């Protein structure tokens, strides 16, 4: 039978360095810090792809993008793969979703006019939906109905709620990013979802273990805060930016960097005041989410609902937030892939590890095996990661259990079957519109699929160049390092080829099945 409750939380677009528990010089996150003190914080945790849909697919299937192949927002997820909701059902739960999973359905077997084929914001198969409020087209309508019930004047276009209130006192003296939104601090999308979660818990009448996936949209854009959070941090106080000092030098560093900087909504503001204010606004968005999560956990703790509950909190990906003159999530840049991971195991055997910080490299592919470990079911064979339980209920040492990875990997796919933007810009086919990264404690190597004359590889010495501005890939003195990193990348891909039936063999004695852990 299932071991206990599961509260699986994702926050959207939260950078891994933005925790006061991680030593951030400005951001304050008392709720997440308190969770870290109650459990284990994984300091070197990485998303395996971006943006939202592909990364959540990795979280929910335990698979690298090279295997699940749902590489874009809108790329269908193959029905043959299991996922976290289906595994929770196998363990005896009724997995319940609050928020979204950004899952595009397998179109095979669906009618051409099926409405699920007109939005990438579908629901992962297996979830019972308590709240799903997609916002891609009409906007977050459930939130708007809730606002209207609270007496808020909701405009016909819900996104107008995020238009800056330039009449607010002081707005004329600041960047436009400072001005508050047109709703109050108690009326946010985060507050709405916390209310719905608490209502659901208050209505529960049975004692069966529960599995809740709470998928919060913030601090995902729009970059705008309600009053009280709009000025939480001063633009003058934000730390400096990583990357080239001049935008034109960043653009000259690689053809993909130049292309990214030209994309609408991806290049950071050129004006220094705007760039700093945008980052301060992002920090304020985190403060709002942290406060609402504090309200959630205070209520759950008061009711004893976390006494037998595994809490796992992470983010789908990070945000460039001005670093390398970019915002949003993309490319090979660390800021888009380094994310928080907190795991709180309530059992007594985890007491010795409370407040521990893990520096061994961990990845999103480890999340599903970890949840399966807690639920008491074997992780699906498709999983490319390993359970993090040895770090939570034991101390495997700084390097992790035997055979633990020594580097992290991520993939970024920038094809577009609809608009063909990169394909046209670089005169390459879709299959060449992707790259893979291997990053260890010293070196970071980026391998695009396209010919190097079109999109060359990159190599960075992280010790000498933590801001990653000095590309060494074409330096003859680093030919050996580049070759070693490229060979390691090939080995990694070969070792993680899809393996559903490769451990099976039909023999004269019948079917033989063998399974090895990924190493």
UniProtKB/TrEMBL annotation:
Coiled-coil intervals: none
Q: What domain of life is recorded for the organism?
A: Bacteria
Give a single Pfam family match: Sulfatase
Q: Which Gene3D superfamilies match?
A: Alkaline Phosphatase, subunit A
Q: What is the protein name stated in its UniProt record?
A: Alkaline phosphatase family protein
A Gene Ontology cellular component where this protein is annotated is: cytoplasm
Q: In this protein, which residues make up the domain named Sulfatase N-terminal?
A: 5-377
Q: Which SUPFAM superfamilies match?
A: Alkaline phosphatase-like (SSF53649)
Q: Which UniProt keywords apply?
A: Hydrolase, Metal-binding
Q: Which is an annotated GO molecular function term of this record?
A: sulfuric ester hydrolase activity
**Keyword Metal-binding tagged:** yes
């Amino acid at each position: 039978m299932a071991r206990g409750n599961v509260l699986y939380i994702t926050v959207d677009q939260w950078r891994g360095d933005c925790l006061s528990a991680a030593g951030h010089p400005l951001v304050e996150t008392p709720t997440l810090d308190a969770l870290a003190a109650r459990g284990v914080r994984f300091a070197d945790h990485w998303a395996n792809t971006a943006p939202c849909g592909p990364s959540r697919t990795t979280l929910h299937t335990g698979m690298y993008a090279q295997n699940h192949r749902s590489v874009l927002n809108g790329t269908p997820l193959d029905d043959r793969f299991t996922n976290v909701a289906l595994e929770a059902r196998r363990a005896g739960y009724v997995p319940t979703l609050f928020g979204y999973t950004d899952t595009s359905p397998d179109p095979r077997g669906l009618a051409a006019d099926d409405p699920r084929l007109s939005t990438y914001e579908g629901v992962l198969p297996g979830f019972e939906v308590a709240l799903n409020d997609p916002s891609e087209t009409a906007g977050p309508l459930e939130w708007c109905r809730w606002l209207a019930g609270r007496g808020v004047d909701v405009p016909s276009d819900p996104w107008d709620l995020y238009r800056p209130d330039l009449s607010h006192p002081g707005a004329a003296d600041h960047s436009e990013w400072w001005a508050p939104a047109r709703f109050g601090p108690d009326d946010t999308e985060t507050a709405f979802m916390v209310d719905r979660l608490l209502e659901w818990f208050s209505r529960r009448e049975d004692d069966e273990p529960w599995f809740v996936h709470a998928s919060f949209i913030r601090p995902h854009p729009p970059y705008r805060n309600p009053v009280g959070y709009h000025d939480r941090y001063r633009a003058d106080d934000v730390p400096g930016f990583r990357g080239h000092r001049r935008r034109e030098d960043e653009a000259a560093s690689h053809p993909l960097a130049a292309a990214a900087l030209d994309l609408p909504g991806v290049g950071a503001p050129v004006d220094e005041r705007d760039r700093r204010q945008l980052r301060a606004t992002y920090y304020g968005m985190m403060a709002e989410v942290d406060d609402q999560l504090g309200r959630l956990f205070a209520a759950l703790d008061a009711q004893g609902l976390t006494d037998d509950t595994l809490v796992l909190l992470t983010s789908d990906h990070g945000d460039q937030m001005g670093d390398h003159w970019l915002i949003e999530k993309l490319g090979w840049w660390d800021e888009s892939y380094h994310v928080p991971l907190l795991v709180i195991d309530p059992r007594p055997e985890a007491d010795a590890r409370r407040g521990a910080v893990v520096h061994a490299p961990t990845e999103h592919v480890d999340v599903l095996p970890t949840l399966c470990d807690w639920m008491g079911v074997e992780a699906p064979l498709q999983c490319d990661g390993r359970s993090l339980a040895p770090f939570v209920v034991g101390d495997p040492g700084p390097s992790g259990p035997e055979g633990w990875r020594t580097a992290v990997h991520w993939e970024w796919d920038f094809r577009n079957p609809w608009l063909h933007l990169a394909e046209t810009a670089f005169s390459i086919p879709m299959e060449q519109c992707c790259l893979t990264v291997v990053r260890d404690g010293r070196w970071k190597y980026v391998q695009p699929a396209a010919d190097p004359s079109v999109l060359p590889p990159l190599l960075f010495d992280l010790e000498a160049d933590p801001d990653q501005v000095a590309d060494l890939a074409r330096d003859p003195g680093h030919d050996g390092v580049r070759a070693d990193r490229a060979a390691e990348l090939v080995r990694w891909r070969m070792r993680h080829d899809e393996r559903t039936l490769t451990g099976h063999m039909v023999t004269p004695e019948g079917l033989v099945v063998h399974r090895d852990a990924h190493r």
